[in-house]
Amino acid sequence: MALNKELLKGAIEAVVLQALVDDGEAYGYELIQRIAKQSNDVFTFQEGTLYPLLYRMEDRGYVTSTRKIATSGKERRYYAITPAGKTFLNSRRDEFNTLFHALKTSLHFANV
Amino acid sequence: MNREDYFRSLTAELGDDPRSARLIEELNEHLDDHESLSMIIGKKSESAESVLGSSATIATSHRTAQRTASPLMILTEAAAFGIVGTPLMLLFFLFFITRVFETDTAIPLIAVGANALIATSAIFHIFALRTTAKAHEQTQIRTAAKLMITGVPILAGATFVTAFGLSTEGSTSVFASLFAAIVLFALGAPIAHWIMKRTLTADKNTRFGRFVLWYREHILPRLGTIIGASMTIYILITHYVLSQGTIGLDKYGTFIDAHPILVMLIAAPRGIIELVLMFLHFWFVDGLHQLLNINIALLYAIFFGVIGYVTIVTPIFASYQRRKTTHRFNIPWIAVISIVYFIGITFTAPLDTPKVTWSVPHYDLSEKLERQELGPMYSTIKWLNRLEKSYSKYFAYRYGDELVVTMNNRKMKVTINDIEHPVLTTIGDGELTHGFFLLDSPPANVSCNGKSFTYDGTTATLGDSSQISYFCSSLEVNGVPVATIENATYAGMTETTDGKYAFLLLSTGVYDPSYGYLVELPQMGKE
Q: Using the beta-carbon criterion (under 8 Å), do A9 and B277 form an inter-chain contact?
């Protein structure tokens, strides 16, 4: 499979979408915490990255957002993944799978 | 940078997007959530800098100062109030009793006692206020010091940047290269001198010892001269001797702090590591600063050999990550020498100093990155990456529209008109004549101990450019020393969209025996 040139950049989108799939809708700060926890702090997003990303994905129809009352009692904007987002996520997962296997083979990781 | 400025910088990226107001709203909520969480768990808000950028440390420091002073102030003020207030209340109470019971006997004693208590309380009050003021003053001093340091534009005006990819032999050229590539991309340095420490021979000193010696003798003085003595503050190299063991991702992840510009290189003799550049982009850019966000994913657990090196490239002041690393790995703390720092990088392209860079083998990251993000070295590295991807050991030589290379002692030629998909063709030795190579003579302005690279038919009988090799101590371009070396081999000329380059294989001693370098020939300009 030919890899999309934007694949690596798209990784961040996949990670966010996956977090929304795994644990359901979330607002921005919650989402960052969730992703950091799930990845053992490997993926740590800053809000300056996350929100514009969420907006872009909203434009593409991958996520929707609604204002709701959070458990803290404060109103927050919750983001949820859409069917289109799930389709996109699955596509990216396949691409990453291909990339990782290609890297593993090309760089001889198994024989190091 | 205050919150409003920070928000403005972010919303500016949205352009005319009507969601700018929404972004500000969400950012406010986000930071409120962050501060709430920090207060709940009592965690130092170390991410404030990362949240708002380095310059935001100013505002953060002030807030920290206020927080630091507040508990003590409250305590002392409360104590002072209690000491003063109690006798006053007692005095009023006794005065009330005296008036109610119409007796005067108690008044003198009450007055004396009350006055004594008031005097005592006044002393305590003064003491308390002095303590408070002193604490506040100390906090201000610390804050001021922090402001001074964070106010220094790191690498401002830098004309020389060194990045070290430490590894042990046979282990991790890939990872060192990855590291080198990433840092190179990140820095976009006009001059980047890449050194891969790779020593195979045993010596009375340790490899690290020799490396440190070399670093102190050759690197620090240059940094001090070119960038200023303070630069040594910011360039350190972290070295660890690791014990045998396996580090799982569950432990690994914990020491990668939530900082936006943390890059790590893990190298080990038999490292089984997969690093993937997840994304790299400029998180914040203005006229003076570039804040680069580099995220690397580590896919598997890390296996360390008996001796290995871990180079951690962290932001300045990120001693937290280093300490936590040693703690998590339970490894002895040997030395802390290097950190490469990314915030506030402003480079001044030198006018007459050549560009020296280590050719980055094996790992082609360039296709995954956006062209405009890669800085002035993009095309050079791209060319090198593609070249190296195809050839494990090579010399390169330009001939007309073709690039002639020697790969594993086999002569190949590559049509460079289609460099996206190089076409390799074996060419016979008979086609390689003296005249073939002499068509593009080595540049006269590149010299080794003052001696220009010239082809010598008496010694280079095969007409191979690799035979133009000198043992010397100083590589010069236009008479200016650019590298301390032990041996230089001219491997040909090449050119990119950035200009022409002399392709040299340099040995800088035991630390760097055989890596290719490009020496830019600035006076030749672009074609």
A: no
In a domain, A2, yes or no: no
AA identity, residue B57:
T
Pick the residue from chain A with its C-alpha nearest to B279: A9
Contact B259 A44 (CB under 8 A): yes
Give the burial class of B454: count Cβ atoms within 10 A of its Cβ; 0-12 exposed, 13-18 middle, 19 or more buried.
middle
- The DSSP call for residue B445 is T
A97 Cβ under 8 Å from any chain B Cβ: no
Contact B14 A40 (CB under 8 A): no
Q: Which residues have CB under 8 Å from B335's CB, separation 6+?
A: B208, B212, B237, B238, B239
Q: What is the CATH number of the domain that holds A75?
A: 1.10.10.10
B331-371 pLDDT per residue, tens = 333 222 222 222 222 222 222 222 222 222 222 222 222 33
Q: How far is A32 from chain B (nearest CA, A)?
A: 10
Tell me, yes or no, if A27 comes closer than 8 A to chain B by beta carbon: yes
Asked if residue A52 belongs to a domain, the reply is yes
Secondary structure (3-state) at B403: strand
Structural domain boundaries, residue A56? 7-104
B50 → chain A, closest CA residue: A46
Q: How many domains, in total, are found in chain A?
A: 1
- Asked if residue A112 belongs to a domain, the reply is no
At B400 the three-state DSSP class reads coil
Residue A4 sits at the chain B interface (C-beta within 8 Å): no
**pTM for this model (two decimals):** 0.29
Tell me which residues of chain B, numbers 9 to 68, contact chain A at a CB-CB cutoff of 8 Å: 10, 13-14, 17, 19, 22-23, 25-27, 29-34, 36-37, 50-51
Answer yes or no: do B30 and A44 touch at CB < 8 A: no
Strand ranges inside B416-498, DSSP E:
424-426, 446-448, 451-452, 469-471, 474-477, 480-484, 487-496
Q: Does A80 touch chain B (CB under 8 A)?
A: no
Summarised one tens digit per residue, pLDDT across range B160-195 is 333 333 332 222 233 333 344 344 333 333 222 323
- Residue A67: inside a domain, yes or no? yes
